Inverse folding.
């Protein structure tokens, strides 16, 4: 491990730097630190609206969810081993050729990402808080405790995700059972309140046992120990389940489908066969269920949050159909990212097809896949909330926001969404272009009953601006991406 | 008539100069071989000529088209077999040929697919997606995809790699017939023994520069075979 870990860290650093540039990549933690500093400087006002225990709960949930996203090596590792990344290969695949074990390289991946993301996000976040000490008077020991506790929540998420994804490599049934069990635990804490959240998030439990909540003592120690134990248990379990001989699953195909799908897509003329290939790829690669869950999960989470704010906190916030329409459009960007991760695209380089044409094909695939689900969700939530009267407004909001978000993402990131969103320059532009109109729509949606004429005029104005921006960005795809190649 | 013309092609990647000013002429109807040690710039030159990569300086002309300015038209006119066999993972072999044929607008596509499926015996992989095919079968598929529209110029990067001796022989015979019908082949390869039997004009590239070019006899300069000539030419520079 002593020689493997530095090599893996170098590999990860070079991979991320290759997405933009070394300098841009190194700017990422600086931006995180500045952001954290800004939050600290405004914390007085923030804490007036959100009590400290709730803010800490939010921090730990975020760290845990971030860890969950990072640690799915059973899926990611399998993808590294299975999918040929253009001309790329990774150290994790080396046991196929060298006398090394997959267990060792998977452990290497775990430690690598724990170190990497701690350095990329958690440490800069803490540095930003520490920099605010002369102005805010925060105690350095409290910041240190916050770092430790957040690190435990992050590692618990990462380890749990690592374990669950390796269970998936062995048995789909066991995986489904495990996910159901974890969901029940979280529902018991979050929805039914029969369990305190800190009972399932040891980092949070540790934090609540530390200043400024309590004097450090047995409770904090128990939380820390429970967290460390859970992390060790999940990692050990995951390593036990990593298969030593990796055999990619073959995908049997009964018959050639492409000509039939192509024949049915006459409506998209020049993009017919490209779109047909996308749809066949998506189905055979098993990406559609993954896309479905990654779209529906945040929507359900959003619905739950709205329900909780309305019924749990009894806060008078008017989450209506228009709000959901805007949010559904916003989350559509997750699906565009999936469309770019189905397969390597090197073979396009040998064909008379350029990058903008393939980007447009992905946009068509996005519309084909999401329009129905998004509409169904907005109609369903409106019906459940007894808010069908605003559907006539919510549906155009959803549609315009979806198309704007996906075209804007395609314009900024081309065929490498995941990679370019690590480029701080791209991320900053994306954030401004995504958040401003969505914030406008969200705020307007809250006032629709009080000032209907003003609100509807405002929404119409925002939608017109978004539609105009969509047209400009769509046309700009050619100029921006025509000279790019397909190799990753 | 020139099929390929390159003048002063330079390609730099940050501090590395992959091509340091390449001049090259390939006549229509030539079977042209480009040879060089690893990292000499063969694939970079091929990628520039086929519109996959823009040069840092210099210009090229392929079938009367500038590949840097009009890469799509160059790719439409030629056939390319890349260095790494990489058909799309989730299509079957005949689906990939259908896809390529549709993108290229091949007339009577079912007949064309049938011809190349039969030629390379790709029926064996029917019902199997490309990801699950053997390397050799994937290479045969990339060859079939490059030939399906019957282009007048072929760019082949290591076309014999991964093929068994039977298909090496079949491919050699096909390429010679193809050349004899007046069309042009531009091939990069390390397999000098095979290349010597196929090429009528060759060039040797080293360190991003052409160090020898001409007919096979001119480049061999009395050496017993191409391998000996290659070792002399490249060895002199080491």
């Amino acid at each position: 491990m002593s020689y493997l870990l530095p090599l893996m860290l170098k590999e990860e650093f070079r991979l991320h730097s290759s997405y933009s540039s070394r300098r841009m990549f190194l700017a990422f933690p600086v931006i995180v630190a500045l952001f954290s500093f800004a939050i600290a400087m405004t914390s007085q006002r923030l804490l007036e609206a959100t009590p400290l225990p709730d803010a800490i709960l939010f921090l730990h949930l975020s760290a845990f969810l971030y860890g969950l996203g990072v640690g799915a090596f059973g899926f990611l590792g399998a993808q590294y081993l299975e999918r040929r990344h253009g001309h790329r290969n990774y150290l994790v695949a080396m046991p196929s050729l060298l006398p090394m074990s997959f267990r060792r390289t998977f452990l290497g991946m775990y430690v690598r990402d724990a170190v990497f993301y701690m350095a990329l996000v958690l440490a800069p976040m803490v540095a930003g808080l520490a920099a605010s000490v002369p102005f805010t008077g925060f105690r350095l020991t409290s910041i240190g405790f916050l770092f430790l506790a957040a690190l435990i929540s992050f590692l618990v998420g990462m380890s749990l995700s690592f374990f669950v994804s390796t269970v998936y490599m062995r048995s789909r049934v066991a995986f489904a059972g495990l996910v159901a069990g974890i969901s029940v635990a979280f529902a018991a804490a979050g929805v039914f309140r029969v369990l305190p959240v800190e009972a399932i998030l040891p980092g949070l439990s540790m934090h609540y046992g530390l200043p400024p909540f309590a004097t450090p003592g047995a409770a904090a120690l128990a939380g820390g120990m429970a967290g460390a134990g859970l992390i060790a248990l999940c990692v050990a379990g995951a390593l036990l389940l990593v298969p030593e001989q990796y055999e990619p699953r073959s995908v049997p195909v009964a018959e050639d489908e492409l000509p039939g799908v192509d024949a049915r897509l006459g409506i998209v003329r020049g993009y017919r066969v490209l779109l047909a290939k996308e749809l066949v790829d998506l189905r055979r690669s098993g990406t559609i269920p993954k896309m479905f869950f990654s779209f529906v999960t945040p929507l359900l989470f959003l619905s739950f949050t709205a329900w909780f704010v309305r019924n749990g906190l009894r806060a008078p916030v008017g989450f209506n159909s228009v709000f959901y329409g805007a949010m559904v459009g916003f989350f559509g960007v997750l699906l565009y990212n999936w469309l770019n991760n189905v397969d390597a695209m090197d073979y396009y380089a040998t064909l008379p097809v350029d990058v903008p044409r393939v980007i447009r094909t992905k946009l068509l695939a996005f519309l084909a896949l999401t329009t129905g689900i998004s509409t169904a969700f907005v109609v369903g939530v409106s019906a459940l909330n007894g808010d069908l009267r605003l559907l006539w407004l919510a549906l155009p909001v959803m549609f315009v926001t979806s198309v704007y978000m996906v075209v804007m993402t395609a314009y900024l990131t081309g065929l490498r969404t995941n990679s370019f969103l690590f480029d701080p320059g791209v991320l900053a532009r994306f954030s401004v272009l995504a958040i401003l109109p969505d914030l406008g729509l969200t705020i307007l949606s809250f006032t629709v009953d009080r000032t209907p004429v003003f609100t509807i005029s405002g929404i119409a104005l925002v939608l017109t601006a978004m539609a105009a921006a969509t047209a400009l960005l769509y046309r700009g795809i050619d100029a921006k991406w025509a000279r790019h190649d397909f190799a990753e | 008539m020139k099929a390929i013309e390159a003048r002063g092609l330079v390609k730099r990647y940050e501090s590395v100069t992959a091509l340091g000013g390449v001049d090259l002429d390939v006549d229509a109807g030539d079977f042209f071989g480009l040879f060089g040690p690893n990292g000499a710039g063969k694939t970079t030159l091929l990628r520039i000529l086929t519109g996959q990569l823009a040069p840092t300086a210099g210009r090229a002309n392929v079938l009367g088209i500038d590949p840097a300015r009009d890469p799509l038209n160059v790719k439409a006119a030629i056939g390319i077999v890349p260095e790494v066999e990489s058909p799309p993972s989730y299509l079957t072999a005949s689906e990939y040929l259908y896809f390529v044929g549709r993108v290229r607008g091949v007339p009577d596509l079912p007949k064309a697919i049938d011809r190349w499926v039969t030629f390379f015996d790709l029926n064996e992989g029917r019902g199997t997606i490309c990801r699950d095919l053997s390397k050799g079968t994937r290479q045969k598929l990339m060859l079939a995809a490059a030939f399906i529209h019957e282009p007048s110029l072929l760019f082949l990067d290591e076309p014999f790699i991964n093929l068994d001796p039977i298909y090496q022989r079949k491919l050699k015979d096909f390429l010679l017939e193809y050349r004899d019908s007046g069309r042009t082949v531009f091939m990069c390869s390390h397999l000098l023994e095979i290349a010597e039997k196929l090429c009528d004009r060759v060039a040797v590239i080293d360190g991003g520069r052409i160090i020898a070019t001409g007919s096979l006899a001119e480049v061999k300069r009395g050496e017993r075979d191409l391998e000996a000539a290659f070792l002399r030419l490249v060895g002199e520079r080491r």
